[in-house]
Write a structure and sequence with these properties.
By secondary structure, this protein is α+β, with helices and mostly antiparallel strands. The protein is about 40% helix and about 10% strand. The protein has a two-stranded antiparallel ribbon with strand order 1-2.
């Protein structure tokens, strides 16, 4: 998922109402139409930002009876991309996302 992908995804959401609805209701299938295969076990939620909303993401609760140290402080990574996207992902899923982005970049570099 390179910056070009992010720009194209944003453009499609802004210009295609049916695609915008699909990307929120079934993002895995919507991304598939753009050639992006989401690995099994990775769930994707796309939130189209609204001007009149404030978004909070609550980290997962620790397991009952687990000591506080069992819940890592850095549960999510947050970074921005191409001034369009804010990615918020669990640390474990970050590596899968980075692998997807690197694969897209590698494919894009081939003739």
């Amino acid at each position: 998922m390179s910056g070009d992908f992010e720009k194209e995804l944003t453009r499609r959401v802004w210009t295609d109402d049916a695609f915008a609805a699909q990307v929120e209701s079934d993002p895995v299938e919507a991304l598939k139409t753009m050639g992006v295969e989401v690995p099994a076990g990775v769930k994707v939620k796309v939130v189209v930002q609204r001007r009149d909303r404030v978004y909070f993401t609550i980290p997962p609760a620790r397991a009952p009876h687990a000591p506080p140290a069992a819940t890592p402080l850095n549960q999510m990574d947050l970074w921005s991309s191409q001034c369009l996207f804010i990615w918020l992902v669990p640390v474990a899923a970050k590596f899968k996302l980075l692998a997807l982005r690197n694969a897209a970049r590698t494919e894009g570099d081939q003739p």
